Amino acid sequence: MSEKISSPQDLEGKHQQDGTVTPMSRVTTVTSTTDLFEDGTVDPVYQAKARVLNAAIQEIGMGKYQLLGGLILSPVVNEFHFNGPFLSLALNIGLFVGAVFWGLGCDIWGRRWSFNITLFLAGVFGLAAGGSPDFVTLASLLAVLGLGVGGNLPVDSAVFLDFVPGSHQYLLTILSIWWSVGQLVASFIAWPLIANFSCPQGSTTCTRGENMGWRYLLFTLGGMTIILWAIRLFVFPLYESPRFLVGIGRDAEAVEVVHRIAAYNGRTSNLSLLDLQAAAIAVGAEKSEGEKKLLSRSSVFTMDHIKGLFATPKLAWSTSLLIFLWGIIGLASTLYNSFLPFLLASRGAQFGDSSYYTTYRNQVILGVIGVPGAFLAGWAVEQPYVGRKGTLALSAGLTGVFLFASTTARSSNALLGWNCGYAFCSNIMYGVLYALSPEVFPAKDRGTGNGLTATATRVFGIIAPVIALYANLETAVPVYVSGALIIGAGFLALLLPYEPRGKASI
Fold first, then answer.
1. Name one GO cellular component term (predicted).
2. CA-to-CA distance for 210 and 228, rounded, in angstroms?
């Protein structure tokens, strides 16, 4: 940015002659803001400063600054002749490690570099995986790709929520539209590539030259990711989270970031370093010149952030229930979704239409169906008497119902129809869960909380392929198990103690 930002001394304002800080009107305004957490849930100094930042970001408003394994399974198995679930197992191990490492890490060394590095890893190793000469190499490269993808998912929601005004937090739910768009784009690319450049299904011999479709797909998706990473790094720079900066005692830099965002949006902000200092003094804390570190004391992993998520009985119950919800939904969805192309093909074989063309055409249709679900979710979570919890419970229940209903299909079109219902409702379910989780984690521990919930999903994501190794996927048993688990998760969602609708996350 070319605009001049005031120095910390300029931003600090003036002190009274007796050395006390003159309280600003912003502090009075912030104390009346409705927070998600009651007093005493998080560090009082951090809470006071977070309220100041919330008011400043709300003042800026919304602006331009804020706003794969399953697809290649069948042709890869055909070429390398291995048990299909092993590929999903390798990818999920990478996703698990990425969720733990980057989820906890972004609360220690910041959001900015965590986001950029994980995106870079996904692109580079996606490209490399396309050149795999054998199954072991492919599985290893996909595991490292998972390290990037698994880390990016918990980081990006923390990044978005740290910058968005409280009045627009619902947009995090709509942000899940990019999952559907991503699935649609990937499926649309996979459809002609795998249908036209793959060995015939069931062929006894399959050479690399005859089976380049899945490699072309990985090259394409990896290249797209690298391009997006470069645009994010060089064209639309990502600033460090002001909440993270306040948490590590860098108040002046947090103020500077707020002013930069305001300028980027074509607006101005009245936030000053004095406001943050006055907020701290208002709760009885002595002035520390911005040196007190509330979020992270060092660049090493500690238990502090995990303890912060269990600081009170209510917060502990909320954190535990969210971890459990992510775990059981992760088990159910991974067991079903990881093998959806395979399942559609095997069911289609009974109906005489098991070609790659039909399988990946159906994947494109499912991708299209998921897009409107994100918009419906964004509307529903803001409705009185429904909110986040009600939308999550209803969508989870309907997702389970459609899974059960899919077992009644007696034709390929009927199976596709039930899966369309599943895709629509599950996109709502995941969109709400994806947004609700970081909203009810304090920002100073948000990355860790996202990491714990993502870890629960990945642990059960690892278990799902193991189950598949010993289960008959051509029966309806995995579908019944998945449906029952997701319906149960819908009932558990109603027990969550916090409803973020109409309240600002801190």
1. membrane
2. 31
- pLDDT string in tens for the chain (506-residue length): 333 333 333 433 433 444 444 444 444 343 334 667 666 677 777 677 777 777 777 766 555 444 544 444 455 555 555 555 677 778 878 888 888 888 888 888 888 888 889 889 988 998 898 888 888 888 888 888 888 888 887 788 778 877 777 777 777 777 777 777 777 888 888 888 887 887 776 666 777 777 788 888 888 888 888 888 888 788 777 888 888 888 777 888 888 988 888 888 888 888 888 888 888 777 665 444 444 444 444 445 567 778 888 988 899 999 999 999 999 988 888 777 656 556 556 666 566 666 777 877 888 888 888 888 888 988 999 899 899 999 999 999 999 999 888 877 777 788 889 989 998 999 899 889 988 888 888 877 888 888 888 888 888 877 776 776 676 656 667 777 888 999 999 999 999 999 888 787 77
Return the number of other C-beta atoms located less than 10 Å from residue 345's C-beta.
21
Identify the CA nearest to 322 among candidates 455, 151, 169, 159. 455
Question: Could you tell me if 26 and 275 are in contact, meaning their C-beta atoms sit under 8 angstroms apart?
Answer: yes
Strand partners, 15: 21
> Is the domain covering 69-238+306-493 a CATH 1.20.1250.20 domain?
yes
The C-alpha atoms of residue 33 and residue 12 are separated, in whole angstroms, by 23
Residues 6+ apart with CB under 8 A from 458: 92, 95, 96, 99, 150, 330
Q: Domain residue spans in the chain?
A: 69-238+306-493
C-alpha dist (Å) from residue 239 to 113, 233, 466, 489: 10, 10, 41, 36
Torsion of CA 457, 463, 467, 470, to 10 degrees: 160
CA distance 65 to 492: 36
For 118, residues 6+ apart whose C-beta sits below 8 A from its C-beta are: 98, 102, 147, 148, 149, 151, 152, 155
Query: What is the DSSP track for 81-126?
Result: ---THHHHHHHHHHHHHHHHHHHHHTTTS-HHHHHHHHHHHHHHHH
CA–CA dist 178, 435 (Å, integer) = 13
CB contact at 8 A, 418 and 451: no
Q: For the chain, first and last CA: distance in Å?
A: 27
Q: How far apart are the C-alpha atoms of 213 and 341, rounded to whole Å? A: 15
CA distance 187 to 361: 8
